[in-house]
Design brief:
The chain is α/β, with parallel strands linked by helices and 305 residues long. The chain is built from nine helices and nine strands. α1 packs antiparallel against α3.
């Protein structure tokens, strides 16, 4: 009722107070540290890791951290015993694998190797395959790769020309010497008989082929890809993309061989910690030696003897 005849006006009819005065920019909230993982390698100095998950996401301009940042991922050293010392049978030079693993060995067969280099790569691959025969739970595949010899072949292999079907073996030089199998003896025999492709180096396609092969792998087995290469790939960009995709589904071990190997690119591509995923062989002869092969086996299998 409005005032009349000189009556007093009503008191204040509305009131205001502040609310939600906190910043619109809120940092994410992280969980506590998880338990330490098992050691990443059976020998040769691996790492254990622990991590934090995001419990509440960031808002506005608030900060958060990637899964690989120090705020969310922590490491500590483990299993410092050298892989050569981890051999339990003094009559053997090489470790034997006893883990449940699906392993794809990807071997560079490009022309840059030379005849001697090809012989050393072939010998090393044969020795690696043989060491998985001790495990009844290991399955293995071997891909020898090269690359196209002409621009027309390259366009087809890169998926840029889809007008006709591409032959992976004859046009792209992706030659499987065994798909994932526990018949290790047959794969070893195929490796011993393999011929040198002596072509270009389409590493991107080889990594993609390895990823496709692992689709046939077992859900309860560790997936590992071992890439042995001595030369630069035809496309750094495509190789980077293929490596990133593969590393989402498998542990990838890079074995750069010789001083002409693409070390910078591999450092860029490899997952952290780099020491767990890069095994350097300074020469082709060194690749074939027990020390290098044992480091590869110890990084592939968590149980060795």
């Amino acid at each position: 009722m409005e005032p009349v005849n000189g009556g007093s006006a009503c008191e204040q009819t509305s009131e205001t107070q502040g609310c939600n005065i906190g910043s619109c920019d809120v940092d994410c909230v992280l969980s506590g540290w998880s338990a330490w993982s098992v050691c990443s390698k059976a020998c040769g100095g691996g790492v254990q890791s622990r991590s934090k998950t995001v419990e509440s996401p960031a808002y506005g301009m608030g900060r958060c951290w990637e899964a690989s940042d120090d705020e969310r991922l922590d490491h500590k050293d483990c299993d410092p015993l050298s892989c050569d010392q981890a051999i339990t049978d003094p009559t053997r030079e090489l470790l034997q694998c006893h883990s449940k693993v699906d392993v794809v060995i990807v071997v560079d067969g490009s022309g840059s190797l030379g005849w001697y280099g090809w012989r050393m790569s072939k010998y090393a691959t044969e020795k690696l395959v043989d060491q998985f025969s001790a495990s009844s739970d290991a399955e293995i595949a071997v891909l020898v790769y090269g690359g196209p010899h002409s621009m027309a072949e390259y366009l087809k292999c890169a998926g840029l020309d889809k007008s006709t079907a591409v032959n992976m073996e004859t046009e792209c030089r992706m030659i499987w010497k065994g798909h994932l199998t526990d018949d290790i003896a047959t794969v070893k025999a195929n490796v011993a008989a393999m011929e040198w492709p002596r072509s270009t180096t389409m590493t991107s396609l080889a990594l993609s082929e390895a990823e496709r092969e692992l689709f046939k792998g077992r859900d309860d087995a560790e997936s590992v890809v071992i890439l042995i290469t001595d030369g630069w790939p035809m496309s750094r960009t495509r190789t980077n993309v293929a490596a990133a995709k593969l590393q989402q589904v498998a542990k990838v071990l890079y074995v750069p061989v010789g001083y002409s190997a693409p070390r910078d690119l591999i450092e860029q591509m490899a997952s952290k910690p780099k020491s767990d995923h890069i095994i350097q062989a300074n020469t082709l002869w060194e690749l074939s030696q027990p020390h290098t092969l044992n480091n590869i086996i110890g990084s592939t299998c968590l149980s060795v003897s």
